[in-house]
UniProtKB/TrEMBL annotation:
Boundaries of every AAA+ ATPase domain copy: 50-187
Domain of life: Eukaryota
Compositional bias ranges of the Basic and acidic residues kind: 244-255
Name the UniProt record assigns to this protein: AAA+ ATPase domain-containing protein
Cleavable signal peptide: none
Amino acid sequence: RIRREVIPANEIGVTFSDIGALDEIKKSLQEVVMLPLRRPDLFTGGLLKPCRGILLFGPPGTGKTMLAKAIANESGASFINVSMSTITSKWFGEDEKNVRALFTLAAKVAPTIIFVDEVDSMMGQRTRVGEHEAMRKIKNEFMTHWDGLLTNAGERILVLAATNRPFDLDEAIIRRFERRIMVGLPSIESREKILRTLLAKDKVEDLDFKELAAMTEGYSGSDLKNLCVTAAYRPVRELLKQERLKDMERKKTEEAGTSSEESTSET
Ligand code: ATP
């Protein structure tokens, strides 16, 4: 199952240029991700330690998954997408085995970015009422392998995770994310940039990007994308409507033709 989630760098298909705005975040990701993955030899000394965990947090649809994919692509790393459902199994003991398999596979296809989406559902707080025994085991197994990366500077594996609920994370997990980056809702300037990126390949000469950005306060990147897709369908819908109208006109004239033929043959 985990094998299916591996995307080689050259097949990821998302680049930084597909992501509008978020310039500062892109820059800091490049800084902390590229070097350790590409040049682990620079980190074999005592002081300089490669970063092994980055947490992206913020509201849904703000581009966290896109950022993770783009950074894997740009740094030439394989991308493994994991979530609770990739790891859990109905078979006893299988969950921990899956976590082990994940790290073994990551080492095999290294450099690798292990992306844990909705990390809170996999690594929530220990003290939370009703924490499942299975979840505790997954978490402990994950942390053991993760710590293994810390002691081996040559290992070119990085854990990147995303959550909309950072406060639900286990303390021990939060500590392991050396960098925590907030990906918030876009400002008016950012919305304009995102809209320009989303519509870069479309003919929209008469669109006032500034005005649209001003009208979309509170929209995430994903909301803006949905808005553009819906708008793009409007002319298509219009075209279909016109064609349907033409069709109806044609049918009407055909019917009128046959009925006048019928009435002539009767007379
Ligand atoms: P979630 O927390 O719901 O998983 P997310 O933060 O991971 O969301 P993404 O899955 O990366 O968000 O974004 C969803 C979609 O929204 C993307 O596939 C993309 O089409 C669009 N999108 C979001 N942010 C941007 C952006 N900054 N530039 C261009 N497109 C964006």
